[in-house]
Amino acid sequence: MTGVLIVDDHPVILQGFRRVVEDAGVAMIVEAGDPVSGYRLFHRIRPQVAVVDLTFRGSGLAGLALIKRMRALEPRARILAFSMHRDPIIAARALEAGAIGYVFKDSPVPDFLAAFDAVREGRPYLPHLLATQIAGIGAMPEPSRYDALNAREIQVSILLREGRSYRFIADNLSIGYRTVVNTCASIRKKLGARTQAELLKMIIAVEDLESQG
């Protein structure tokens, strides 16, 4: 296992990552702009560290599936989730998929390097507040209900929680309006909500609990 692989579809992010990691003394850096090429490169080079974005244009939270595939291929993989998402539910899913660290894209360089160094050494890393919020999720009554949501359902739930309309969600996630309707129906069924209003109350309750952490 050698070098570092970053999988991200934003050229500016890739450029900034390369500069920061090279300054930290990493010589071999390999880049991929989508999950498919990212997995192929991971399979071929088996990097010391894989840094994986979670969200890809037109593919939703495809990074979660990529992390899971990497972990299945290489159980010792040292994977750092690198994301704009601050929602502890998404962060928890990344850890469940196989990441051992999670850092925000807008973190100061010292914080990013702390996360990178920890994962490179095989140590877990989470921002303190995020770790507290994830612990709060684990303390929720009936956590298995929320664990049942898949990546798309989590994404839609977050946008619903922000008060977004079905049309906004469809456009934002590059999916059909009917897909949003069907996804909401699936979320209601999994969470045991009888109506959309009841679902929204449940989702808001989760946010309130997280903020208490």
UniProtKB/TrEMBL annotation:
InterPro entries per UniProt: CheY-like_superfamily, NreC/VraR/RcsB-like_REC, Sig_transdc_resp-reg_C-effctor, Sig_transdc_resp-reg_receiver, Tscrpt_reg_LuxR_C, WalR-like, WH-like_DNA-bd_sf
Coiled coil ranges: none
Ranges for domain Response regulatory: 3-120
CDD domains membership: REC_NarL-like
Xref: Pfam families: GerE, Response_reg
Keyword vocabulary terms for this entry: DNA-binding, Phosphoprotein
Cell membrane among keywords: no
Name of the protein: Transcriptional activator protein ExaE
Recorded name of the encoding gene: exaE
